[in-house]
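ENTRY TYPE: paired fold submission
RECORD: A
CONTENT: sequence, then structure tokens
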Amino acid sequence: MPSAPLRAVIFDIGRVLVKVDVARAIEGLSQGLSLSPAELWSAIEKDPRWPDWQEGRISSHDWHLHVAKRFGSPLTFNDFRAAWNRCLDPQPLQSNDLFATIAKKHKLALLSNTDPIHVAHLESTFDFFQFFPAATRIYSCAVRASKPSPVIFQAALRALSTSAAQSVFIDDLLVFVEAARALGLHGIQYRDPAQLRADLTALDPSLSF
């Protein structure tokens, strides 16, 4: 049992709520290039402007131009955007009854390292966003900070008007869960839907899934 009553549940998005398959995106992005999809993705992740893209210091169109210029991509912006979003599987990993049950007693938030192209696609594709008020959708590209920085977690707590001790953060990556715990939040490393519900119930037995 938490020492303080649980008031807020904060979810990562990628690989917790939405399946991510980078290969699907890179296959489209690598069309017409000499690099293999694996080489292209490695280069994109290591690009000096990647942090700027994830933290909102470069626009979607400028990111497309940067990538196109660096790698010689022939893709138009619309084609680039479509390929970029292809990594997001349209079938959600959780059913909406999970959020409906939590929302009866607790505040809900999203906290994700993501970019403006993915944000627009996610919010227009998945109906689970109805359970998350716009003010508690905390994106790295909006707050200009990425996990594991304390800045992005503190932004979520401010938006929720809750203390760290009354909040739990759920992520598939242990390094980000540990970053949340270091700030006093409860942390759950996501593995599968059944484990998630069991761990949430252990934190708050009043939750009935």
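RECORD: B
CONTENT: sequence, then structure tokens
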Amino acid sequence: MVISRYHKIDGLDWIAVPLVPYLYAVDDVSQVPLTVDKEQVEALRDAYRREHLLDLAPDKKGKAPKGEWTQLVGSSYDRTIHGFEVTSTQEQDERFIALFNDRNNVGHFNLLFHNCADFSAAVMDIYLPHAVHRNFIADVGLMTPKQVAHSLVKYGKQHPEMEMSAFVIPQVAGSMGRSHGVDGVKESLVKSKKYLLPLVVLSPEITGATVVAYLVFGRMSLPKDATIFEIGDAQVTDAPKVAAPRSGLDGPRPISTDGDAGERQTGGQQ
């Protein structure tokens, strides 16, 4: 099960989606296409929406509505996803479910302090306390997908007893735009001529400090020996119910969490 936070989806703060639909917008691994184009992806997502997500994303004038509901299904058509795996105990899983059952599942998305990466950090803190932290130098205190990954890589090296491993879910082949690496806050400034050149003219001192902050604190590389995740080899036991109720978690314990801390067309790890 994938637990994720996206902005403005039926007023919910988080939503639980079975793994196969989350990745490929189909119910069964036998239905996963080998290659796709934009029209096929839209058709797959809309078919799944009509079957399972009408409560979250109802028709608008007889057609599929616009909005971020598309992020809930078919993520592997848009991006390559990098993940990390650790072993959890039954007690940790029960604590996670109990904590989420006690929360009101009402969205209050905030880009600065309550974004999707913050959600990933909050979930990981239940299993790995203090493993994920903000970078006030490279990201000016904002939590970003890259910082979540950076923290987990560092934590895994510091705690080999956790036996943390990395895996990659490749983007599905086809004519969809290829995903690329995500950048941190200051890294985005350094790599963008649109912002960097005017900043050099206006304030060369700040520009220099920004570049140094990126070079010293903002760069990272993901594990090179990450396992390729084969969905056909996974034992998927997700319940058919897609959207968790507003007040808690319905269905079996989650086997994956997501706060966009992977790779996507608008940013991610590569």
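NOTES ON RECORD B: Strands lie at 2-4, 15-17, 35-36, 81-85, 165-169, 173-174, 227-228, 256-257. Confidence is low (pLDDT under 50) at residues 235-270.
STATUS: closed
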